[in-house]
Amino acid sequence: MNVTAAMTGSQPRRRTPKGPLVLDTRELGRRPGSMRPVRTQVELPADLGTEMMWVAPGATGTLDLRLESVIEGVLVSGTVVAPLQGECARCLEGLSDVGTVELRELFYYPDRAADMSQEDEDVRVLVDDHADLAPVVRDALVLDLPLSPTCRPDCAGLCVDCGARLDDVGPDHSHARSDPRWAALSGLAQDTPTGAEQGPLDPDENKEKE
């Protein structure tokens, strides 16, 4: 921890954020009502998504945003469009989609944020007049993704016996299954000796041979 910051009770200085989703707001100034549109394409971070649906590494997203200066800071609103890829939760086939999320986030000026509770982790703060949208986009996109995506609503999934994709093998696909109760009886029959293995059934036959 910075010794000077600890003695004065102030927070240590943050480094200027960098990355494709960092927006420079210096052109707005601090005059409430100033507005600037941002329409651009950027390379999205590779860690966006879930186990079943995610943004492909190196994928390009489209930003259509508006930066607006307000008393507390800079309000960022608009949409982010991201190409997605993943796996069908039923048949595990690859699939692709396009995700569109709405953003509306207020980035506070540092002096305004200092007056707020330090326990509020959701407060976004401008650092050197730069707004880092990466965590905002990540939260919005991940919450919008389906937990169990499907290649189509009526996907039949996989055969539980052989793993074949049921939409490929057709409705007549099946496997012969024996009743486990009959299987147990069959096992008992195989263990029971028959014919000569059983020996004479009449105990008097043994006396005659003697």
Automatic annotation (TrEMBL):
It comes from the Bacteria. Pfam families: YceD. Residues 1-11 have a biased composition (Polar residues). InterPro entries: YceD. Residues 171-180 have a biased composition (Basic and acidic residues). Residues 1-20, 171-210 are annotated as: Disordered. This is Metal-binding protein.
